[in-house]
Amino acid sequence: MSVNEEIREQQKKLKDMTLKARIAYFWEYYKIHTIIAVAAIIFIVTIVRDIANNKPYALYAMFINVEATDSQYALQDGFAEFAGIDTAGEAVLVDTNANFLSSTTDSSAVATSEKAMAVISAKTLDVMLADENSFAHFAGQETFMPLTEYFSQDELKELSGRIFYMDQSLIDYLMSDQYTDYILTNKYDESNKYAKLAAEYQETFVFPIMDYEDMENPVPVGIILENSAPLTDTGAYVTKTPIAGIVTNTQHKDNAKKFIQYLMQ
Fold first, then answer.
1. Is 252 helix (H, G, I), strand (E, B) or coil?
2. CA dist 177 to 28, 93, 173, 183, 208, Å?
3. Please, are residues 85 and 75 in contact by the beta-carbon 8 Å criterion?
């Protein structure tokens, strides 16, 4: 049957249907298209509204797996006061609605991954906070700039014991064709310790956290925020100790550093 014949056949069916039957028929055959169209319209309207109403960001931070999402406003206000940011002209956004568990592919984990990729690609995100396993997952994707780009050697020395390191050799393996081949074939070089670590991660969903002494090329990428008064007081992280990192292509380097210093109080 040709396309035109198919159309005429559908029109003939509709002609003899009641209104209720037509609606049911339409929903049965076009509900997916309708849902996608409505979602697209909502998305476009939201984007247009945000562009129209938004002030430029002074800082955009994403908090993953927080314990109190309503901590957002106190953190935003607290940092604006700490950094002397005039919120009449610039906005501070602390996104506390991101959830990520590497052991699952549910909608929230997928949405968080996609959101993170989107705002990083748009050069919007400045700082990310997450529990150790989630932070290491994103660090393994080259999400964070080495802290040496923002902190002096003296500052890093003062932070001794609070710095989270990643082995650049592990990151390089995770970004390599060898790792891609392993994902496709489930085969890897067992003599390569990084290949073994990556394979274990795929099986256990626990990102390999290496001791500093075992790293070939340790790079400081995060600051461990233990006993952070702002995080504890707002309830953002009470039972967890998050790690903060500055995103590779942040457009607000000074404020990104200040935000971490604010959280280290």
1. coil
2. 44, 37, 8, 10, 20
3. no
CB 214 within 8 A of CB 44: no
Rounded-to-integer distance, Cα 57 and Cα 259, Å: 13
Segment 23-42, tens digit of pLDDT: 455 555 555 545 555 554 55
Question: Strand 91-98 vs strand 57-64: parallel, antiparallel, or unpaired?
Answer: parallel
Round to whole Å and give the CA distance between 14 and 26.
9
For domain 55-263, the question of CATH label 3.40.50.2300 is answered with no
pLDDT in tens, 148-203: 999 999 999 999 999 999 999 999 999 999 998 998 898 999 999 999 999 998 88
Domain boundaries, the chain: 3-51, 55-263
How far is the first Cα of the chain from the last one, in angstroms, to the nearest whole number? 72
Query: Is the pTM of the predicted complex or chain greater than 0.85?
Result: no
Rounded-to-integer distance, Cα 90 and Cα 71, Å: 20
Give which of 143, 125, 131 is closest to 66, Cα–Cα: 131
